[in-house]
């Protein structure tokens, strides 16, 4: 029986990290919370090391007793190579994560043990078995609860390497069932949406230094009772935070006002498509028949910036979809937009449908990055889709459109915040690269916090036809 162990936890770099399109800043945003959460279950005698290959060099010359690797689709091939390397050296290798849960047969030959589903219950069960020399080949999540979990091992996170070290997750999963989403596959066989106890979530927030927080929950407003209590508890904490919500939750009751009062300053919203048929195809019921414009106006009236998510390549899309979407996003003053080429991830309803229809082109997971077309398209051809997607990014983030979208707000401060946030995010790549190289990313936090400061509706309204950015082309 092992008394104490050397445990190495690895988040492998995406294959795309080597692609010319890779933006280092995009992968230096959030620390690997999932692994730091699992680390909290290890025995205090164990020596745990956590390496995130996106932001630091991985030393593979060591000989840990146990190696734990988090696998998602575009890092899968790299993860398998690392797993093989450590197994050849005699380490015991565990693989888990979204991709392993979707394709256990693929992952199995590379691991001693694989984990299916969320780890909070099956990981401690494995650790017990492992220490007794009795570990099983497959550990499946049986019970779903995060009511009682130990505090995340944030001491293992190298905060200075991330722009947003204060990321936090207070729930697991989501109440919805979009057919392109991993969620149903990952949570299959049990509860697929559950939250922490409010007190525990507030205690975790309290442990985080500074003001800024980023909630990485799929749907922060998904459980109304929990969200109301959370926002109530956060009111006096003087935090500013970002998170994600659906359109229907923004429109329902006064939850969004409560969130704004607690410090919500920017929200990620999955608009996905402006076409009803596409929403139906995607089983995106929470968007069907919803007034996008009313949700946007409500957010703006609360001074909340919007990051809209859009998917191109659904079957009802034609070649006009790109311009239509970008114009709509600019005219509705979305601060940032995230565009995706539809990607059928294995294990999802979308993948299964496409496979039945013979539409999957290949299983080269490196290209399942939402930037490549990996399926037979319907309403527009493959080149049109790829070119349109690239054009949408260029167009939305042109200085002209950033300025135009910023100018849609009726309060000057919102206009300035919008311009600084969108411009800063997409137009200062050399600065971001420099900050990453000099390991000074978290020095940018005070700036981010000031951009996320409150927009007060009593602040001066914008004088008509006066641009605060006269020099912008
Ligand atoms: S709302 Fe988002 S997280 Fe929830 S199922 Fe749909 S895509 Fe997935």
Keywords:
TIM Barrel, single chain, six-stranded parallel sheet, Rossmann fold, 14 strands, alpha/beta, binds iron/sulfur cluster, 473 residues, globular, 2 domains
Describe the secondary-structure layout:
Elements: E1 6-11, H1 33-39, E2 47-52, E3 66-70, H2 76-88, E4 92-96, H3 98-102, H4 104-107, E5 113-116, H5 122-131, E6 138-140, E7 167-168, E8 171-173, H6 183-186, E9 193-195, H7 198-207, E10 212-215, H8 224-234, E11 240-245, H9 247-251, H10 255-262, E12 264-272, H11 276-281, H12 292-301, E13 305-312, H13 321-331, E14 336-341, H14 349-356, H15 382-396, H16 399-406, H17 412-427, H18 429-437, H19 445-451
Parallel strand pairs: 1-2, 1-3, 3-4, 4-5, 5-6, 7-10, 10-11, 11-12, 12-13, 13-14
Antiparallel strand pairs: 8-9
Helix pairs in contact: 7-8, 8-10, 13-15, 16-17
This protein binds iron/sulfur cluster.
The site of iron/sulfur cluster has 10 residues, from loops.
């Amino acid at each position: 029986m092992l008394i104490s162990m050397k445990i190495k936890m690895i988040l492998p770099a995406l294959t795309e990290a080597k692609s010319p399109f890779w933006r280092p800043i995009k992968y230096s945003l959030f620390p690997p919370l999932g692994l730091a959460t699992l680390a909290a279950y290890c025995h205090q005698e164990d020596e745990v090391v956590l390496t995130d290959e996106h932001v630091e060099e991985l030393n593979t010359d060591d000989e840990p007793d146990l190696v734990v690797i988090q696998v998602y689709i575009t890092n899968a091939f790299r993860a398998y190579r690392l797993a093989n390397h450590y197994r050849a050296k005699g380490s015991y290798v565990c693989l888990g994560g979204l991709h392993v849960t979707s394709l256990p047969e693929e992952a199995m030959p590379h691991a001693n043990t694989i984990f299916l589903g969320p780890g909070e219950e099956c990981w401690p069960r494995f650790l017990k078995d492992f220490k007794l020399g009795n570990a099983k080949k497959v550990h499946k999540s049986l019970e779903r609860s995060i009511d009682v979990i130990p505090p995340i091992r944030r001491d293992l996170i190298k905060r200075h390497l991330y722009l947003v070290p204060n990321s936090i997750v207070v729930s697991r999963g989501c109440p919805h069932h979009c057919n392109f989403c991993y969620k149903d596959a990952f949570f299959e066989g049990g509860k697929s949406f559950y939250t922490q106890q409010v007190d525990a979530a507030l205690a975790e927030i309290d442990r985080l230094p500074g003001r800024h927080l980023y909630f990485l929950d799929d749907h922060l407003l998904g459980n109304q009772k929990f969200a109301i209590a959370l926002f109530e508890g956060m009111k006096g904490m003087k935090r500013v935070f970002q998170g994600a919500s659906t359109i229907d939750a923004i429109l329902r009751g006064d939850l969004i006002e409560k969130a704004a009062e607690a410090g919500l300053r920017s929200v990620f919203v999955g608009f996905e498509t402006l076409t009803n048929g596409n929403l139906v195809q995607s089983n995106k019921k929470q968007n069907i028949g919803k007034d996008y414009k009313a949700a946007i106006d409500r957010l703006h009236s609360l001074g909340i910036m919007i990051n809209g998510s859009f998917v191109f390549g659904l079957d009802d899309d034609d070649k006009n979809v790109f311009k239509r979407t970008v114009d709509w996003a600019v005219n509705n003053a979305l601060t940032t937009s995230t565009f995706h080429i539809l990607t059928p991830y294995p294990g999802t309803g979308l993948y299964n449908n496409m496979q039945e229809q013979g539409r999957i082109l290949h299983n080269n997971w490196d290209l399942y990055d939402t930037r490549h077309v990996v399926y037979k398209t319907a309403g527009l051809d493959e080149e049109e889709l790829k070119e349109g997607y690239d054009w949408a990014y260029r167009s939305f983030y042109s200085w002209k459109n950033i300025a135009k979208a910023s100018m849609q707000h009726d309060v000057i401060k919102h206009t300035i915040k919008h311009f600084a946030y969108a411009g800063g995010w997409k137009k200062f790549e050399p600065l971001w690269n420099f900050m990453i190289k000099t390991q000074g990313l978290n020095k940018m936090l005070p700036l981010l916090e000031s951009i996320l400061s409150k927009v007060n509706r009593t602040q001066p309204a914008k004088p008509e036809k006066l641009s605060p950015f006269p020099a912008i082309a």
